[in-house]
Amino acid sequence: MRTEPPKIDWDRLRELRDLFLQAEPITKPYWRSNRQLQDYDITLGERIGWKWEAVIREVKLRGWEPPSPSLTDLGCGTGVATRRMLRAFPGHFRKVTLWDHSESAVSYARQKIRHEFPEIRIVCAKAPPHPKGVVVVSHLLTELTDEAAATLLEQVADAQALLWVEPGTFETSRRLIEVREAIKDHFRIVAPCTHQQTCGLLAEGNETHWCHHFATAPRVAHQDPFWGHFRREMNLDVGPVAYSFLVMAKEAEGMEPGGSHLIGGPLRFPKYVRVLSCQAEDVRELVAGRKVNVYKDLKQAHTPALYQFELKKNRIVSGKRVD
Ligand SMILES: C[S@@+](CC[C@H](N)C(=O)[O-])C[C@H]1O[C@@H](n2cnc3c(N)ncnc32)[C@H](O)[C@@H]1O
């Protein structure tokens, strides 16, 4: 039996997206109704969910598991990040704390989480919390003034682990790199970096690059007429979706894979492929010719793109994808 596609107020959703894209911080709550939250949740929020799935896949690859049964979502919106975490780590969490300066958002997120995970205790914070367990932050940085971002960093200082996902734009990635540098001495970096050094994108010559990755949409989204509507109405591709992220933990022994993490997508040429590669020593462009064993892998742009390479200057001689 065919189900009716959800009806969306596309005008409102476009307005909301325009608001998200504006360069200035958004200092006041903007959610106007449950309907608007729902429309966001099954469209833009769902795309954010695909980013979270990619990030969670990557941290699992590195052997990370939630170190605490307590999960806090700061700027929770509809609770997308929390629901992805609860789905990905069944049985790990017992309590979820939701914080957002919009009460409507907190109430919507609580309902959705309660419906899908009735066993989880949900606390709706009345003031900005300073959590000690696992903290998720998703698509919040762009809305914050510098002062509010600094306050947020104080809020997360005692967290055992922090998973932070943002849009994959130049500006947001660069702000997330500032966050990384500001707090890296108090945490171990789990991902995306394969090392604990200063971010290589801060080195001279790398000013035009930014740390971003692509999450693919599930195959069904490409076949579903609802997402076809989404594409036309929002003038946005269904996927892949670009994201920046940062995962840090107080205890992260043994989770440093070494090797290289690729940034952005590959540039494909007839006889070789060029990638931007981050490793402990630097961030730089590397090329692989057609005969190199990982050539096809590199061309296909897997996420996560974690590799161990054998290099000769800027040429990849051979490699192995960590998956
Ligand atoms: C773009 S939405 C993202 C929501 C959700 N985290 C997600 O990824 O789908 C940003 C959310 O942050 C909230 N927010 C913005 N500034 C905030 C602040 N200073 N304190 C708490 N919440 C804030 C907004 O109300 C909104 O729900």
Oligomer: single chain
Secondary-structure-based class equals alpha/beta
Compute the separation of the termini in Å: 38 Å
State the helicity in percent bands.
25-40%
Averaged pLDDT: 95
Largest sheet: 8 strands, mixed
Radius of gyration: 20 Å
From the coordinates shown, what is the CATH architecture of the largest domain? 3-Layer(aba) Sandwich
Order of helices and strands: HHHEHEHEEHEHEEHHEEEEHEE
Low-confidence residue ranges: none
Individual helix count: 10
Which shape, going by the Cα principal axes? Answer: globular
Overall CATH class of the largest domain? Alpha Beta
Provide the domain count.
2
Strand content: 25-35%
CATH superfamily of the largest domain: Vaccinia Virus protein VP39
> What's the β-strand tally?
13
Primary descriptors:
323 residues; alpha/beta; Rossmann fold; 2 domains; 8-stranded mixed beta sheet; 5-stranded antiparallel beta sheet; 10 helices; binds S-adenosylmethionine
Describe the structure.
The protein has 10 helices and 13 strands. By secondary structure, it is of the alpha/beta class. Strands 1, 2, 3, 4, 5, 6, 7 and 8 form an 8-stranded mixed β-sheet that branches. The chain has a 5-stranded antiparallel β-sheet with strand order 11-10-9-12-13. Strand 12 (306-312) and strand 13 form a beta hairpin. Helix 2 crosses helix 3 and helix 3 (44-61) packs parallel to helix 4. The protein starts with 9 loop residues before the first helix and ends with a strand. Bound molecules: S-adenosylmethionine (SAM).
